[in-house]
């Protein structure tokens, strides 16, 4: 394995030459906010932070780092949940925060060309003003970058109807570790021209190149939506209701699951009393439908209500106005923060075929009993994507950083057995890579490592993420 | 470059041992139907044809060919339009026709697991019986294989609303050229676990491995549809209407364009008098909407009619019943055959952002004038996917196989300039590979060739397709 060099004063001077003096940080204090993301309590200080704002600058930085064998870590909004943007080897951290321009909203073709440092919600709002819709919608949308979403192939609540980031990316401008710049595809909805480099880059967690321009497809903005919150007396039956709704022919635009603790904790955290949780309620489903015809949405809501009434539920809360909808969505979106505020935790991003959710949930709880941990589960149930938050609680250091790993491995082995995988939308990064062997055999892992080597022969770009190589 | 060996009697005996005597063909007469596909008039006879029906057999065949340096060509239904299934170097042709079982329709998870040799229409019908829908729908659906569709990332008329093959593939069992067998992903709707090997294989035209099992996602079957045929007095304005319809907020489930000649030729070919084409009509749009609510579909049809009435059109034909719908669809589906029956032709599978269609169409005609060829254009206008059929007519041999190449290059350069690419759904195969330089620079081409090398270090599998390597 290549040995990295340390960043020297000469390197810093060269970076200042490329990006401008004020856009290169080398003092610990200014760099400290680049030392972590939202993943547990990981902390890695880079040796230097550089903030380019043109493709040419990124190319020059990569050339320098390639020549000098400096480790490079690309970074978006720093909201990642698997440590993908952390400078594990120190070196040069490239912050994409100044790539913050939406280049063109093409209303004729329903496309947007953007730089990667645009905040996802800002992009969504900008296209919304034109009557257009970019559905992928992570909980962190108010602070995450669209480029980071591409690196992690993010999802969010709308994925159940509209798909994930990969389903919207048409074309990417990519700076390779050598400094060469390519476009991965074309600005078209159908493409059978060579290997799909675009889809290879989406979800590659910044290990293959640095994305500097993004072309996304958009769809017409649905004009209406309806939202309801359904309380269940059993968490497993809430999970079972999810697939029953789809089997009845409905495709909700969101179908979110929250265990009792999740909703209770977030209600306290945001000091909301909008949802009264009865004693015997164990879980909730938050269900949205959207479209252009209000009368159709009413029919669908009634149809879905009929399905869930076949389970042991409490009283359904139908959101009456946009304020109440916002309130319910706020609760769902801030669950992760609330859990974090409540206790140190590890978040597992399990995903299974949706009808297997009840088995997964039961398995998680059984494994928790075996290893003595409590978990709070919530997530995008319509996609079979369950976020399992393992609470530190009273676990000892040895349990937390020792035997718990075996418990997590058991959860992931169950996920695999159910046809699922270990990350639905958070990526592998640093924290899940030791579990990759559960999903991929050595042949597949070797293929991935060789692909990495093709793009990054000197192995300088985000090394140690996804796998060791 | 590796030099291939010739197939010997010993190799044939070994193949018979693996697949069974009756499933190995080595006489010219039996093999002749494997020597061509639907691409122009290409003809390459393999040295031996083998028809395995298990993954283990495919693995053994690949091991043998790898060890003996025999060229291998995988083949589906033989309906390809770019020569991808042709045994350019002779050698071993693996016909997947006996991989014809639908393994499981999973109604709980809206998924199907199938072998690759299942005919696309049969798969569609099987899931339809369960109220489920697999939308990708090439014109050849009655004879093409689902495995071939994956190799070419096929589309078809429904792609405009529902996406192409890549949007439905969740997981693939793949036999590598070494004989090793991997699964590329997991059976889930969201996946952020390592590089997307699944999407790398989709559209790779059988150059990376042989797909032996396929997991597809399905959606609920829409209960209703409506269809109309709109005649335009100018072909360019028909193209312009396409993007106007989307900009008005409608997403039809099909939006097909046919030039006058296309519809006239196919009407003669199938001896149909169901459409009367007025003298001054230059092109038609066939527009479908689908969904569960007939009253909504009526509203959408009326909305779309209002948009097209803003153009210079003739009388709209609304299909009155399922028989008339079928008749109109038959005309559209059989255009390619009709053109083929009319004259030798070359088909170009151009695709651009949809609002650029009028510019593309005008450009194609202008280039045709310059080089002296007539073209008949039709295709999936909603996706910006225009099939340009260049008619041999009275062109000399020198024009047809000589200067015409420059004309095609000019068309593809225009496509590139408009943000498009040279194949939307037919693939590159043998016939378009000399134009790849228009779309991809040397750096991208090198990446693709290196990816090929990782999967196929001895370069035995479908060599010479997509690019020379």
From TrEMBL, chains A, B:
Gene Ontology molecular function: FAD binding; oxidoreductase activity
SUPFAM superfamilies given in the database record: FAD-binding/transporter-associated domain-like, FAD-linked oxidases, C-terminal domain
Keywords: FAD, Flavoprotein, Oxidoreductase
Key word Oxidoreductase present: yes
One Pfam family, short name: FAD_binding_4
Domain of life: Bacteria
Cofactor(s) in the UniProt record: FAD
Domain FAD-binding PCMH-type: 42-221
PANTHER family named among the record's database cross-references: GLYCOLATE OXIDASE SUBUNIT GLCD (PTHR42934)
Protein name: Glycolate oxidase
Naturally occurring in which organism (per UniProt): Chitinophaga niastensis
């Amino acid at each position: 394995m290549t040995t990295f060099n340390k960043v020297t004063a000469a390197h810093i001077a060269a970076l200042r030459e490329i990006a401008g003096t004020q856009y290169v940080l080398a003092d610990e204090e200014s760099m400290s906010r680049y030392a972590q993301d939202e993943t547990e309590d990981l902390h890695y200080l880079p040796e230097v932070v550089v903030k380019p704002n043109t493709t040419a600058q990124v190319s020059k930085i990569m050339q320098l780092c390639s020549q000098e064998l400096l480790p490079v870590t690309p970074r978006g909004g720093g909201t990642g949940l698997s440590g993908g943007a952390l400078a594990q080897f120190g070196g040069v951290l490239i912050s994409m925060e100044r790539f913050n321009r939406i280049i063109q909203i093409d209303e004729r073709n329903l496309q947007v060309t953007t730089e990667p440092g645009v905040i996802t919600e800002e992009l969504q709002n900008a296209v919304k003003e034109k009557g257009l819709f970019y559905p992928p919608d992570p909980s962190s949308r108010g602070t995450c970058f669209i480029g980071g979403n591409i690196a992690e192939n993010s999802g969010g609540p709308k994925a159940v109807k509209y798909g994930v980031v990969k389903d919207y990316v048409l074309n990417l401008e990519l700076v390779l570790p050598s400094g060469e710049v390519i476009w991965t595809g074309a600005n078209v909805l159908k493409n059978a021209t060579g290997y799909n480099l675009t889809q290879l880059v989406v979800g590659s967690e910044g290990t293959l190149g640095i994305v500097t321009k993004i072309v996304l497809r958009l769809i017409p903005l649905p004009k209406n939506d309806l939202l309801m919150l359904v309380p269940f007396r059993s968490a497993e039956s809430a999970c079972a209701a999810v697939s029953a709704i789809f089997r009845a022919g409905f495709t909700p635009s969101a179908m979110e699951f929250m265990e009792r603790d999740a909703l209770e904790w977030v209600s306290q955290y945001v000091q909301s009393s909008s949802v009264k949780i009865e004693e015997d309620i164990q879980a909730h489903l938050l269900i949205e439908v959207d479209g252009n015809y209000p009368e159709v949405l009413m029919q669908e809501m009634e149809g879905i209500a009929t399905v869930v009434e076949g389970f042991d539920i409490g009283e359904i809360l139908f959101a009456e106005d946009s304020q109440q909808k916002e309130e319910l969505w706020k609760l769902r979106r801030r669950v992760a923060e609330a859990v974090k505020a409540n206790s140190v935790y590890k978040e597992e991003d399990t995903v299974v075929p949706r009808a297997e959710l009840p088995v997964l949930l039961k398995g998680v709880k059984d494994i928790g009993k075996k290893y003595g941990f409590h978990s709070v589960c919530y997530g995008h149930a319509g996609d079979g994507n369950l976020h399992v938050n393992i609470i530190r609680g009273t676990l000892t250091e040895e349990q937390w950083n020792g035997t718990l790993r075996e418990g997590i491995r058991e959860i992931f082995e169950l996920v695999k057995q159910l046809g699922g995988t270990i990350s639905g939308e958070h990526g592998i990064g640093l924290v899940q890579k030791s579990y990759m062997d559960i999903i991929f055999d050595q042949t597949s892992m070797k293929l991935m490592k060789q692909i990495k080597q093709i793009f990054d022969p000197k192995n300088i770009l985000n090394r140690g993420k996804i796998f060791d190589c």
